Amino acid sequence: MTTANSPCLARRTLLPALALLLTGTLTLGACGSGSDGGAAASASPAAPSDSTGSVAATDNASAPQSPAASQVPTITGSLTQEEAGTSGTPAWGTGAEGQPAAEGSELIISDVRIGSHDDEDYSRFVVEFSGEGTPGWSAQWTDQAYTQGKGDPINVDGDFTLVVTGTGVTMPISEEQQAVAYTEPVRFDFDAVGRDDDDGIEEAYLDLAFEDQFQVVLGTDSQTFRIFTLTNPTRLVIDVADDD
User: Fold this and answer.
1) CA 175/CA 173 separation, integer angstroms
2) If I label 119, which of 44, 63, 91, 188 is the partner at 20 to 30 A Cα–Cα?
3) Which of 152, 16, 169 is nearest to 104 (CA)?
């Protein structure tokens, strides 16, 4: 007869407990592995520390951006046949005093063209609009131009900086307006479309509509200019002479 203190009884008592303990340990280990493996399979790999910025940049890409004045794209656009001509061009100094926009004007900047009139020695900057009304403007020479709203410095090539502030415009809100409107500031390189020694306008910067106005910043090597409008379509024309 085996007593309670018998070694055999102790072994029979301990063996089931030890087996249960081992089974529990293996089960927990298996569950742990399964949980980790499931998470790794279902979740994306952990992003590196700098990926958060990339994700944020992607999320913001669909929102309207205001790039620094030094980082906007540079493009060129040719004048139309009418704009390349000199018929009906007003005298130098025309428009220097400015002009108010027509009452109720709601214009959208739909195109910009630049060119050089070699025969007459001047550079031309044309802003075309869609919508109703006639643009207004004011002009002034400055040592330093700044973007509207944010106030970033705008630097353009040339000995002088002419800022033409246009009025009578509106932000493109509807899909129809956005389809034809400029949506980003742009630089224009006159050397790419004119003579190599063109000294009227060297470079231009278009600062888009902010509230009801926009800016054209011109880097020039001359202070002789004129500003006027054309119709069909509505356009604002800025000429700067080459005085050399």
Assistant:
1) 7
2) 188
3) 169
